[in-house]
Amino acid sequence: MQTLLLHAHATGPNPIKIAIALEALHLPYTVQQWEFGDNPQNGVKGEAFLRINENGRVPALEDPNTGVVSWESGACMNYIRRVYDKDNLLGPVGDSEQDRVDFEKWEYFLLSTLGPMTGQTNWFRHYNPSRNEDALQRYSAQTERCYEVLEGQLKKSGGHSILPGRITAVDYHFEPWVRQFRFAGLSLDKYPHISQWLRELTEREEVQKAYRKVKGAAPEFP
After folding, report:
1. What InterPro entries would the database entry show (predicted)?
2. Does residue 220 belong to any structural domain of this protein?
3. Residue 26, domain extent
């Protein structure tokens, strides 16, 4: 089997989730790091990377075994599951339509809500050129609301995985975004189930390996 190529940035959460899935399925891959900006050779907005992903964002995933290039983390994750997860290690826990819908609704909740709200919180806390307290408070509150939703689900599921029964790709989607809580200026003190879930994920082999490969260091529980 030929080695897949994961395009990443060391500080971004989205490439991590794809690396975790690749590690979980024991797929060979290498990581190519890119920088923010429009440098023609190594910037995500530069000419070289825009030939891979017209949107200029990581992750992107190139698979020489099939010739497929995917980008957007949800598309990358679902490609990996369709093509390589023949034993359904990462997919829905059961075979019913409800099981499939439950998997998708939590996947989309991260992709459409918790992830973007956390990203906006980070932006207005650290990167916006001028301080905008109204925006920061709005996005912080929305991220906290997402934590409340996730906390409730983990309480119902038993706390070890977002979907009852076992770890799935849904957990991999959430892990790197929830891990940013402290950078976002938030706390998990009110969310004991999230805190325990994140602690357990931190100790998993595929998570440790993915962080080492993408970020150069294993994760620690914040």
Report:
1. Glutathione-S-Trfase_C-like, Glutathione-S-Trfase_C_sf, Glutathione_S-Trfase, Glutathione_S-Trfase_N, Thioredoxin-like_sf
2. no
3. 4-90+210-215
HSE (side-chain half, CA atoms, 13 Å) at 198? 24
CB 221 within 8 A of CB 199: yes
d(C-alpha 3, C-alpha 118), whole Å: 32
User: What b/e readout covers 116-141, taking b as 16+ CB neighbours within 10 angstroms?
Assistant: bbbbbbbebbeeeeeeeeeebeebbe
Q: What does the pLDDT look like over 108-158, one tens digit per residue?
A: 999 999 999 999 999 999 999 999 999 999 999 999 999 999 999 999 999
81 in the same domain as 177 = no
Handedness of CA 166, 167, 173, 179 (dihedral sign): positive
In a domain, 169, yes or no: yes
Residue 74 placed within a domain = yes
Task: Determine, yes or no, domain membership for 115.
Answer: yes
Measuring CA to CA, which residue among 26, 4, 3, 21 is closest to residue 73?
21
Q: Any idea what the CATH number is for the domain that residue 171 is in?
A: 1.20.1050.10
**Helix 14-24 vs helix 73-84: crossing angle, to nearest 10:** 10
